[in-house]
Design goal:
Blueprint: E1 21-28, H1 35-47, E2 52-56, H2 62-67, E3 75-80, E4 91-96, H3 97-100, E5 103-109, E6 113-120, E7 124-132, H4 140-159, E8 163-169, H5 174-182, H6 192-199, E9 202-204, H7 205-209, E10 217-218, E11 223-224, E12 227-232, E13 239-245, E14 256-262, H8 263-266, H9 272-277, E15 283-285, H10 292-308, H11 310-314, H12 323-337, E16 343-345
Parallel strand pairs: 1-2, 7-8
Antiparallel strand pairs: 1-14, 2-4, 3-4, 5-6, 6-7, 8-12, 9-12, 10-11, 13-14, 15-16
Helix pairs in contact: 4-6, 10-12
InterPro entries: AP_endonuc_1, Endo/exonu/phosph_ase_sf
Keywords: Hydrolase, Magnesium, Manganese, Metal-binding
GO molecular function, one term: double-stranded DNA 3'-5' DNA exonuclease activity
Length: 359
């Protein structure tokens, strides 16, 4: 099958439904103080099968935030509010309970940030830092103090070998900062947040999957990319895709930004001793029992399965950045096709890898 170089825009009308993915999305909702909008945000999360949604600029006080979504038993909500300045602050994390069960700790920077620590199988420390930076630059002292706190958090998490996602409305432009650096000019003081992230070996995930990511904030007189998802370098290979999407279900002047992770890579990782424990139950393909007719059946099965996934394989930017996504699709196809082949019980004491590889 020849893969055609079809270019997908970094923004589409709906968030892509890629199977077996853990999706984290950030949206500035420009207030969450009406029942209608609260329902619309939750509907948006469910329709697009978002596992964890970061909501910024909630403009809520703590008492109000705590009762929102209280009746929903399938999600967990966490809030960061500044009751004295609620009209210009507020961050929330809404997470599906399938993943919230991994949360071991949360920390709050009043009205500006939430840090969520998950302990995944295999003792993987996965940290989400959701932020809503000051939009008003007159708060320079407060902003720089916030940056110092963010740097402290990142440094501490790096020492614990955490995989980190820093996500939200940064109210700063990385594209502008890059342009300033290329022109050998000093970057704007507010853009120092990007220096902090890069110092901690973090990467703008949208730049991994798109040469020119779309703006996330759009007004008639001004446009900019100020909503971001940055991940540590040790997390990049766990990603499948990233996108920017217009939000049609409720009113906001921001777009949604989403990163897609492979579920198996993060949440289904087994510890080594568990793998050894269950080795006796492993079934392997018995190649001695496969004849030419069975190989033909196997090939037909793969062809049919790949045809079903044709859109995912074909309709993607042809670049090395998307290799994870394409490989996961092909890998899963072969796993399904293997059901057609005869099996035998594996020997737990036998070396898994061959001593030589024949070409």
């Amino acid at each position: 099958m020849i893969v055609q170089p079809i270019d997908i825009r970094p923004s589409i009308d709906g968030i892509m439904d890629i199977k077996n993915t853990f999706k984290i999305t950030t949206i500035n909702v420009s207030r969450l103080n009406t029942t209608l909008k609260q329902e619309q945000v939750l509907n948006y999360m469910k329709i697009n099968k978002i596992s964890c949604i970061i909501v910024t600029e909630t403009k809520l006080q703590t008492a109000s935030a705590k009762i929102i979504y209280k009746e929903y038993k399938d999600i967990t909500t966490l809030w960061s509010c500044d009751d004295d300045n609620y009209f210009s602050t507020g961050v929330a994390i809404i997470m599906n309970n399938d993943y919230a069960k991994y949360v071991i700790k949360k920390d709050i920077i009043k009205g500006r940030a939430l840090k969520l620590t998950l302990l995944l199988k295999g003792k993987i420390r996965f940290t989400i830092i959701a932020i809503y930076n000051f939009s008003n630059n007159s708060y320079k002292d407060e902003i720089l103090k916030f940056y110092m706190k963010l740097e402290e958090i990142l440094t501490a998490e790096k020492k614990l070998k955490a995989k980190i996602v820093c996500i939200g409305d940064f109210n700063a432009s990385y594209d502008t900062a890059i342009a300033q650096q290329r022109a050998n000019r000093k970057i704007f003081w507010k853009d120092r947040i990007f220096q902090i992230l890069k110092k901690n070996v973090m990467i703008d995930i949208n730049l991994i999957y798109h040469d020119k990511p779309l703006n996330t904030w759009n007004r008639s007189d001004k446009k900019s990319r100020i909503d971001y998802i940055w991940v540590t370098e040790n997390l990049v290979l766990d990603t499948i895709y990233a996108s920017t999407n217009k939000v049609h279900i409720f009113e906001t002047d921001h777009s949604a930004v989403t990163v897609y992770f492979q579920i198996d890579d993060l949440f289904h990782t087994k510890q080594l001793f568990k793998k050894k424990k269950h080795n006796n139950n492993n079934l392997k393909v018995d190649y001695k029992k496969i004849d030419s007719q069975l190989w033909e059946t196997y090939a037909e099965k793969i062809e049919k399965l790949l045809d079903k996934e044709k859109d995912i394989i074909d309709n993607v930017e042809i670049s090395i950045n998307n290799i994870n996504r394409i490989w996961n699709t092909i890998r899963d196809t072969f796993k399904k096709a293997n059901n057609e082949l005869p099996k035998k019980k594996g020997n737990p004491n036998k070396e898994v890898l061959p001593k030589t590889i024949k070409v």
